[in-house]
Specification:
CATH class: Alpha Beta
CATH topology: Tetrahydropterin Synthase, Chain A
Number of helices: 3
Distance between the termini: 48 Å
Mean pLDDT: 91
Low-confidence stretches: none
Number of strands: 6
Strand order of the largest sheet: 4-3-1-2-5-6
Radius of gyration: 17 Å
CATH architecture: 2-Layer Sandwich
Structural class: alpha/beta
Strand content: 25-35%
Oligomer: single chain
Order of helices and strands: EEHEHEHEE
CATH superfamily: 6-pyruvoyl tetrahydropterin synthase/QueD
């Protein structure tokens, strides 16, 4: 059953700071590492059309549905450096800054707002599947700057991501699949 426009949605927003760089050459100014303060907003809906809980008059208690997501954004994504899996800086970090590997959010190709939106929607979907299976992420928006944002609504967002067992598909706090510290 599809969710209609008149159904209830739970909407959560969170601000975080991040750094990134793009190496493809399509955005020359973004080749230099730099940062943004971004706002991520998600809409959570019930998997099936549902009524409000007659005891609480709620679709779900906010904190229960957003707690793990916010913990991940605040504790792992905030102040992380977003980098391509093909960026030569990964070698630098491995050799000279191995203690920072867990702060690198690694994407397939350039860490554009579009691919990060797909990765983040996949990660939130993994959290919800494990913790709140009655709910799904219907919409995810990343406000990169006051003038630029990317929104993903498709339920087929995984088509933009490679197949495999990657960090964005696991309901754990990971942001990369780099080798653990030795």
């Amino acid at each position: 059953m599809s969710v209609e426009d008149d159904d209830f949605r739970l909407r959560f927003s969170r601000r975080y700071s991040m750094g990134h760089r793009l190496i493809s050459g399509e955005a020359p100014n973004c080749r230099v590492p730099h940062g943004h303060d971004e706002i991520i907003t998600v809409d959570i809906v019930a998997q099936e059309r549902s009524r409000l809980d007659p005891e609480t008059n709620m679709l779900a208690e906010f904190d229960r549905v957003k707690r793990r997501w916010f913990r991940w954004i605040d504790g792992v994504v905030d102040h992380s450096f977003h980098i391509s899996d093909r960026d030569p800086l990964l070698g630098f970090f491995r050799e000279h800054e191995p203690d920072l590997l867990d702060r690198l959010l690694v994407t397939p190709g350039d860490p554009t707002t579009e691919i990060r939106a797909a990765c983040f929607k996949a990660k939130l979907s993994a959290f919800l599947a494990q913790d709140e299976p009655d709910f799904r992420c219907d919409r995810l928006l990343i406000q990169e700057t006051p003038a630029n944002a990317v929104e993903v609504r498709t339920s087929d967002f995984a088509r933009y991501l490679p197949d495999g067992d990657y960090w964005w598909l696991r309901a754990d706090p990971s942001i990369n699949d780099l080798s653990p510290k030795t």
